[in-house]
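User: Hi! Is it possible to get a structure for several chains at once, not just one? Here's what I have:
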Amino acid sequence: MIGYGAMGQSLRASLAKSGDGLTIAAALLPTLSSCDAASRDSVRVFHDIDDLVAWRPSLVVECAGHAAVRDIVPPLLRAGIDVVIVSIGSLSDAGLIDELEAAALAGGSHLIVASGAIGGLDALRAAKRAGLTSVVYLGCKPPAAWQGSAAESLCDLPQITSRTVFFEGNAEEAARRFPKNANVTAAVALAGLGFDQTKVVLAADPAITCNSHNVTATGAFGEFSIALHNNPLPDNPKTSLLAAMSVEASIVRHFAPLAL
Ligand SMILES: NC(=O)c1ccc[n+]([C@@H]2O[C@H](COP(=O)([O-])OP(=O)(O)OC[C@H]3O[C@@H](n4cnc5c(N)ncnc54)[C@H](O)[C@@H]3O)[C@@H](O)[C@H]2O)c1
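Assistant: Yes, the chains can be modeled jointly so their relative placement is included. Here is the combined structure:
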């Protein structure tokens, strides 16, 4: 695993309980970060990519952030190691997508993108084959969840009393202006109409306690709408339990003889 924060620890514990026989055996961590959680869980710690490559992990999962996808994933793919990533917002950088593709081709490896906190991407990908006319993503969170983001300068977060839309634009602009909230918009854009054509609406609502995501797509296939109301991870309210579970599902599917 790259990183061993709230998502990584939740995932390790959940996999250990699952009975699938899969274990998070090691973590690649920044040199100055604490290794306490990894040591507690008997997870071997690496600080150097070359040492991790030499250890030949059967799969690496990224649960660390956009910089880790940019800096660590290409050398792993070039070394022939398959990688699951969850920091999908990093893929709003078209140059990085090209670099990852070249690295995977050179190494004969695969990059697998976990669905993260959103669902319905399989339907979106399938619908795209027949032609999509519109994809709209609406993300709504409690005001506190937007603190520290550009939303603070677009509305008075502590004072709002009802659902308040503070951004309408495309996924490219949303990823640029709200980088810490870009994972879900990027996942929807990549599966569907791309960053320019995917419409994004972001809102804060003091009446809700979980993060909600709505995707509505129309096209030759017909129309679908999907709504998720995600509970947070206990150790990091900014991360959804479902995002961690999506990484677990990707790992299990990767090793299963039947990809059900
Ligand atoms: N796709 C989605 O829907 C979705 C949802 C939530 C979070 N995420 C992504 O998952 C990531 C992890 O979430 P979390 O709750 O575990 O965060 P966290 O802050 O609890 O943990 C992050 C961990 O990554 C490590 N780290 C940071 N930069 C690193 C680097 N360059 N190399 C190696 N390790 C590094 C940190 O030391 C820490 O161990 C988030 O940064 C976010 O990008 C995706």
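The pocket of nicotinamide-adenine-dinucleotide is lined by residues 2-8, 28-30, 33, 63-65, 67-68, 72, 86-88, 116-117, 183-184, 236, 239-240, 243 (CB under 6 Å). The chain has two domains: 6-113, 121-236.

User: Great, thank you!
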